[in-house]
Amino acid sequence: MDELQPTEALRGRSEPEAEPEPQSVNRFISVPFADWDSNTMSTEIEIFIEESGLSDYSDYIRRGAYLAQDKNAFPRNRPRPDGLKLREDKDERKYLDLEYSSRPIDRFNQPWRLYALVVCCSLGAAVQGWDETAINGAQIFYQKALGIEGRVGLIGLVNSAPYLCCAISCWLNYPLNKVLGRRGVIFLTCIISSVTCLGQAFPRTWYQLFIARLLLGLGIGPKSATIPIYAAECAPANIRGALVMMWQMWTAFGLMCGYISGVVLRNVNSGNEGTCDQDRSSPDHLLSSYCSLNWRLMLASPMVLPLFVVAYIYTMPESPRFLLRKARNGDKKKYEEAFNALCSLRYTKLQAARDMFLIHHLLKGEERIMAQQQPFRELFSIGRNRRALGAAVITMFFQQFCGVNVMAYYSSSVLVDNADFSQYKALLASMGFGIINFLFAIPAIWTIDTFGRRNLLLSTFPFMALFQGFLAIGFAFDGTTGTVLIMLGMYLFSIAYSPGEGPVPFVYSAECLPLYNRDFGMGIVTSINWFFNFFLAITWPKFLAAFGASGAFAWYAGWCVAGWWIILLFLPETKDLTLEQLDEVFEISTREHARHGMDQLVWWVRRWILKQKGWRKPVLIQSKIDEGYEIGGEEKYARRPIGEMIEDS
Prior knowledge:
- The chain is mostly helical.
- The protein has helices spanning 6-11, 25-30, 38-52, 58-69, 92-99, 112-145, 152-169, 173-199, 206-234, 240-264, 293-300, 305-312, 320-328, 333-345, 349-372, 375-381, 383-401, 404-418, 423-439, 444-450, 453-474, 479-497, 504-512, 518-570, 579-587, 590-609, and strands at 622-623, 637-638.
- The chain has 4 domains: 1-110 and 318-372, no CATH class; 111-315, MFS general substrate transporter like domains (Growth Hormone, Chain: A), CATH 1.20.1250; 383-587, Growth Hormone, Chain: A; 588-638, no CATH class.
């Protein structure tokens, strides 16, 4: 008889494990060993120690594995039968208590190395925001300098060029990450951003500027998909939502920097007397006054920030999940590298071992499912996945069609051409919009996990529509009345947008899809977001010329109204839900959820408008534990009849 392989000897059998049932696919990934008995758990721990070669850390791995299975694996009042216990000399109890503390602030008590990584990711996000809004002030000047003033089609094409490239380059995210890793992709894309921003300072014609901006999209697209993933894979679960949300908040910071650079650089040799077609015989023609230094410096200004990320990124640990995937593909040295990376991002080796054991088995489950199924096709063929993908697309679509990037890219030129603002006042007004956008994104760090994703959108979209209406009316008036309405509309819209439709789309999209096809789904929704970003940027100049500023902003006010209804009917809430609970939510039919949304609206009108007390809020899913009983000792979820409105006695 042939000698058994080590893993088979430990299991005592060589038969392949049973394939998971289709309906339990996501449960297998979300809690891969929740139902294992002590013998199975002990066997699997020994297998992992042998496979990984981490025998020097076997004590941490054994205890961490039990902690991954049950957070209460080490009770205070009684010893474990196997003798395993927490080490007081390493303060393990102290740091575990911080993780599960009832005080929200305790969750943010994390090692400095984790926050250094967050700073690096935040700088990368700020790079993107600055890349996007550098064009806002520059377009006031480059139109005349390059001889395309009034040619709205060319202006829209130049401004939208990076986002056309982003819609395509997002699809490079998966192969680039597979080859270069998370840090490698961030390093490469920041190099591209810096070089192409510098390239935007030297064009002599509009099509040279178009090419430079098109290539800039290679630096924006993959980075926009990689940095949130990198942060999520390195962060502990209890603050993952807040750290992933940092992407949007610091993108808003970068947007603000772009507006500020427009104000600061506006008077640097504007050269509005001529165009680049003049004085071609001059040896310094390229940077002559006719070619305008101010807009060139505005477009080049984002080039410095990515260089800090480039210098900084390789001082950070690689994503432990990426390293473990490489280890499972044959590079056994990556096991220890992954463990060391987790040790630098957690307070104790016990926490690092727990997270490593969990990630290892999550990857194991994903590999089994990937071998049995076709994740890309099943995004559309399985109802749960199709509804989740549709909900993510809704959030991404309305992030663009609420009209925010009209202001991000065109506010300065619109104010100059349609509201008789001076160049300086237009740039100042745009800078105010950017500052407000950043400041009011900060509260979302708390509200996105407390108030909820769907609730944030439903409570902010009506105000976004109202304030877009202010803009539409303001542009129809002359003088002080029009100016006041325009400024109110811009700033109040920014206040409403920043905590809602700003951060929600990327957070929502990252969590609603099941793990085994999340990469494919994120590729689709991110590409859709950038495509509509491109669509809005390229069509706005012609749209503005055809309908005027009032009609154009009224159009986007209408989309905000439509967005509110679509979110009410078709967007489930995902706050505080585990993967298993998300499966329950998205398995509910679209028709059933739409009816629940209408029942919520009826309840809200009766309760808060008509002041009719005694109506119970409709509940989509209710825990049976809340009703006073359990099934098999495990929490189960049952649907309460949709639209149930029971009068309180």
